[in-house]
């Protein structure tokens, strides 16, 4: 599951490492090049709810295997695109398939782990995000420089098909998705189930806290390399610096958050929220210090520490989403979570930060985005008050 998730993020980020080559070959403007990312995220958001509903009615492992195959073929097909529309179609296909996987995969992991082990299990799974993203940039850039962008994308798509085949051999989840009766699946997968999710305070708190954090992280992912360039670094050096910081800090923070919250949650499940909220609050002044630092080494160190702390939330809050609903509803819950997190998070934060940068400068715009960590932490502290009651109800 970790390998499939790494592949997911390699395929998500690979075209962006090749963007200068794609632009030069197809004579795309910056706006047209930006639409490649928009096509992915628009399809990802649009598919999250309906595919989450469908995944709740079918076997978990099939909803891991076939989306992996579809998005791998879509990535490879991007190398055959003759123009912008072909690229947009391939990225939309990649985004939709990854939304289906994103609804089922965390549910599958949650089904296989008891509540006390769930935060660490989901954190190890989520550690694929920085690892896969970094590999996507590195592999696509190296292959593109050697073979060109078309061959690079075609080559990168092949291993995903092998992972999809391996996913078909995954075991059925004990007492969960693969063995439920059809009528139980249908009953759980109703529109009323979606309405019930958002009315659960713990689910709402975790999901909207993740959305606010994703707004900041998504904006930083796009604009921090530019921030470093405007501080005097070359483009390649700025991308490598931020990519390295994010990969190392993300891996450390995600695994640390899963381990720490899992141990503390043995005494009270509220620690799933509290570890996340305290990490967000502690990251805020460190992130502001990184943006204000005059010395590059100091700013880099502060940014690393801030990212470690903010990434603590990945395992714990995903564990909250898995724990406040029964096993039948987990794909629904994660589908709704994906929709809200990205629709209110990184779907438009890069553009909003860009507009704020035009008005007040990039450092100020990034500080405003970073400030959303405060209300995100507040939602975590509010959610902690309701967690025990919500888990009993589920």
Give the SSE map.
Blueprint: H1 2-17, H2 19-26, H3 30-55, H4 62-78, H5 84-112, H6 118-126, H7 128-147, H8 149-167, H9 182-188, H10 191-199, H11 201-230, H12 235-264, H13 271-292, H14 296-310, H15 314-323, H16 330-343, H17 349-360, H18 362-370, H19 373-384, H20 387-393
Beta percentage is under 5%
**The number of domains:** 1
**What form results from the Cα inertia axes?**
globular
Give the CATH level 1 class. Mainly Alpha
Helix content: over 70%
How does the major sheet shape up?
A: none
Radius of gyration: 20 Å
The CATH level-2 architecture is identified as Up-down Bundle
CATH superfamily: MFS general substrate transporter like domains
Number of strands: 0
Specify the structural class.
Answer: mainly alpha
Uncertain ranges: 176-189
Mean pLDDT over the residues: 84
Q: Output the number of helix runs.
A: 20
Which series of helices and strands comes N to C?
Answer: HHHHHHHHHHHHHHHHHHHH
CATH fold-level topology: Growth Hormone, Chain: A
Taking the alpha carbons of the first and last residues, their distance comes to 26 Å
Describe the 3D structure.
- The chain has a single domain (2-393), classed as Up-down Bundle (Growth Hormone, Chain: A), CATH 1.20.1250.20.
- 81% of the residues lie in helices and 0% in strands.
- The chain has helices spanning 2-17, 19-26, 30-55, 62-78, 84-112, 118-126, 128-147, 149-167, 182-188, 191-199, 201-230, 235-264, 271-292, 296-310, 314-323, 330-343, 349-360, 362-370, 373-384, 387-393.
- Helix 1 (2-17) packs across helix 7 (128-147), helix 3 (30-55) packs antiparallel against helix 16 and helix 11 packs antiparallel against helix 15 (314-323).
- The model is unreliable at 176-189 (pLDDT under 50).
